[in-house]
Design goal:
Chain lengths: 139, 166
């Protein structure tokens, strides 16, 4: 078996996925060829390192961290449409309505026109003319 | 892990990816599956992070030269039950593989990481990187071949250094 062919079959050889005849040929070649044997060993090492890295478990609190970060982003940056547009609009409309109501109420109000004459039935109640200031001062 | 090789960095990046995905949910049109869409975001974010990290690593290497104790502490943080020789050998192997993976061209690296680390089929990888299954197969083969060469050269260099020290 040539080295090039052996290198191509190395992965299948390690996984045991080669037909019996080729499996033996690769095995024989590895015993006799130092370079191919070394390449096989290096690939075993690299697979072991990759497997070790694959086994690394993520932080158990990662999901909580992500959710907390998203919630923080939402509270800082995401302003709902209600808060953005509707709320100021409602305040503006309410304020304008209140001002208009005040103007209309003010224009509807008519003051009672008072005459200088005192009605007959009220004459006796107005005792100011009976007791003048001068009279009081002299007494 | 396949791109960054450091657990803490990978955790931070995962968080960033999910937040980015949440923020861009509106741009998901449904043309591909949701997982494919997330994978695309993850790959772009990972490559950006790797580019940033490679710049940072230069300063870390300089820091390692001046603080050898810190470097030793990093080595021991992984495996504490093994004997010191095995720890060093494992660490050396880990560095060989990581450097070999980091030196691969980006498209080969994406293909091999998705294939080896995430156990995705060639069809799934093709969908994620928007290419054909044949192209993915070719990328994976070239990546394996490049990895083989890089690992062999690292191994030879290491042997020369060991002989030189003796």
């Amino acid at each position: 078996m040539k080295c090039e062919l052996c290198k191509l079959e190395l992965e299948a050889y390690r996984e045991g996925n080669l037909p019996g005849g080729i499996m033996k040929q690769v095995e024989e070649h590895l015993k006799n060829c130092k370079d191919c044997n070394e390449i096989n060993n290096l690939e075993i090492i690299s697979n072991r390192v990759i497997d070790q890295e694959k086994e690394t478990q993520s932080n158990p609190f990662l999901a909580t961290r992500v959710m907390a970060e998203i919630e923080l982003l939402e509270s800082n940056h995401y302003v709902p449409a209600f808060k953005k547009i509707l709320k100021p609009a409602i305040i503006m409309v309410s304020l304008t309505a209140a001002i208009l109501f005040g103007i209309i109420a003010g224009s509807i109000y008519q003051p009672i026109v008072s005459s200088d004459e005192i009605p007959v039935e009220m004459v006796y109640m107005d005792d100011a003319s009976l007791e003048s200031v001068e009279l009081l001062a002299t007494n | 892990m396949g791109f960054l090789h450091q657990k803490d960095d990978a955790d931070d990046l995962t968080q960033e990816i999910f937040i980015q995905a949440f923020q861009s949910l509106g741009s998901f049109k449904g043309n591909s599956s949701f997982s494919t869409w997330i994978y695309r975001i993850a790959i772009n974010a990972s490559l950006n992070k790797v580019r940033q990290t490679s710049r940072r690593n230069l300063f870390q290497r300089l820091d390692g030269l001046f603080n050898p104790e810190k470097k030793n502490a990093d080595l021991l943080s992984g495996i504490v039950t093994d004997n010191p020789e095995n720890i060093l050998i494992n660490e050396e192997h880990r560095l060989w593989v990581q450097n070999a993976l980091n030196d691969l061209p980006e498209n080969q690296r994406i293909a091999i990481v998705l294939s080896k680390y995430d156990d995705l089929s060639q069809k799934e990888i093709a969908e994620i990187i928007n290419t054909t299954e044949g192209a993915v197969e070719s990328l994976i083969q070239r990546a394996k071949s490049n990895l083989r060469e890089k690992l062999s050269s690292s191994s030879i260099k290491n042997k020369k250094n060991t002989v030189g020290k003796k």
